[in-house]
Design brief:
Number of strands: 0
Structural class: mainly alpha
Distance between the termini: 82 Å
Order of helices and strands: H
Helix content: 40-55%
């Protein structure tokens, strides 16, 4: 069964992980955020209570 032989695929797997870890990962992690998180808390708007005409 050739599916169980790791020899042809192991090198491909290792090289793809090395490409990802050494080339792609630093490029993606150096991207900056366009919308910086704000430390301000937004005030909660509480609508006025409803005045029921039958109470």
């Amino acid at each position: 069964m050739p599916q169980l032989n790791p020899h042809p695929w192991f090198l491909i797997m290792i090289s793809s992980w090395l490409i990802f870890l050494l080339i792609m990962q630093p490029k993606t992690s150096s991207a900056y955020l366009t919308n910086h998180p704000s430390s301000k808390t937004k005030p909660i708007h509480m609508p006025p209570s409803w005045s029921w005409p039958w109470t």
